[in-house]
Amino acid sequence: MSVRVELIHVPGCERCADSREALRQAAQAAIGDALEWRDLNVIEHLDYAVSLGVLTLPAVAINGRLVFSSLPTPEQLKRALEEPTIPEPSHER
């Protein structure tokens, strides 16, 4: 089973760009080859972001569920992915 991690951001967000690779690496370390990483520009995916309940950016969703309403540290993301209660995948995209 793959685990979909989505970084929802606004174009030009320097914090997002600076953190993206460290977050992706933390997710990869936590779940290995099961990782499905997606960078989502909120302008291009606005309806999806609204359906998740995103109110502030950047945000992180796991398996189609909003888990972080602000940018987590790589350690926070890794811990969330190592939890036995990772959200089940939603069928929305």
Structure notes:
The chain is α+β, with helices and mostly antiparallel strands and 93 residues long. It has one domain: Glutaredoxin (3-Layer(aba) Sandwich), CATH 3.40.30.10. 37% of the residues lie in helices and 24% in strands. The protein has helices at residues 14-31, 46-52, 74-82, and strands spanning 3-9, 35-41, 59-62, 65-68. A 4-stranded mixed beta sheet has the order 2-1-3-4, sandwiched between helices. Strand 1 (3-9), helix 1 and strand 2 form a beta-alpha-beta unit. The longest helix is centred in the first third of the chain and has 18 residues, at 14-31. It starts with a strand and ends in an 11-residue tail after the last helix. The mean pLDDT is 91.
Spans of at least 5 consecutive residues whose pLDDT stays below 50 are none
Give the total of domains.
1
What is the strand tally?
4
How many alpha or pi helices?
3
Through-space gap between termini: 17 Å
Might you state the CATH topology name?
Glutaredoxin
Strand order within the widest sheet?
2-1-3-4
* Helix content bin: 25-40%
Element pattern in H and E: EHEHEEH
How does the major sheet shape up? 4 strands, mixed
Average pLDDT, all residues? 91
